[in-house]
Amino acid sequence: MSDGFTAFLSRPYRIEWGHCDPAGIVYAPRFLEMFGESTIMLFEKALGIRKKDMLKECDVIGFPMVDVSAKFLRPASYGDNVVLEAEAPAFGNSSFTIRHRLLKEGAVCVEGVEKRVWAVRDAERGMRAERVPDDIRALFTLG
After folding, report:
1. In sequence order, what are the residues at sequence separation of 6 or more whose Cβ sits closer than 8 angstroms to the Cβ of residue 80?
2. 99: part of which helix (H) or strand (E)?
3. Are strands 95-104 and 90-91 parallel, antiparallel or unpaired?
4. What angle do CA 9, 93, 139 make, to 5 degrees?
5. 114 Cβ contact list (under 8 Å, min separation 6)
6. What is the pTM of this model?
7. Using DSSP, how many helices (H) and how many strands (E) does the chain show?
8. What is the rounded distance in angstroms from the CA atom of residue 76 to the CA atom of residue 21?
9. How far is C-alpha 62 from the chain's CA centre?
């Protein structure tokens, strides 16, 4: 595509009734849930382990979202078979940004961007952001 989007993760997805408002159109916050699921799957794919095991093995408590945006270009409706795509994270120091999109019949319906932080336990504050480990960063290089 002309926007330079390169999917690291691509997965088929079916829009179910529970994703939709009474008119059968996807309720906008549900897209953020779908993108959040893709973020978890992105890390699971790169690390080769489930998130619950990653949390233990990487000594991380999660990666909370600190910023999010979405652009709605076309509707998605009940029964649609779509494709969810996510790019490899663009890493900052303790943060990373992931671009997502939802496509129906090859056309982009929704574009989303999440910014998250790598969170670890902190005895005084409960949690704090920490640099994403270099070995994890390296798992997201394409090619």
Report:
1. 14, 15, 104
2. strand 95-104
3. antiparallel
4. 35
5. 35, 36, 39, 65, 67, 68, 97, 98, 100
6. 0.91
7. 3, 8
8. 11
9. 13
Degrees to nearest 5, angle at CA 128 with 124 and 130: 135
pLDDT one-digit tens code per residue, 52-67 = 999 899 889 999 999 9
Q: CA-CA distance, 119 to 143, in Å (whole number)?
A: 28
Query: What is the SS3 assignment for 75?
Result: coil
d(CA 132, CA 96): 8
Looking at residue 139, what DSSP letter applies? T
Query: 7-138: which CATH architecture?
Result: Roll (3.10)
pLDDT per position as a tens digit, 104-143: 999 999 999 999 999 999 999 999 999 999 999 999 985 4
68-108 tens-digit pLDDT: 999 999 999 999 999 999 999 999 999 999 999 999 999 99
Beta strands in 27-87 (DSSP E): 65-72, 81-87
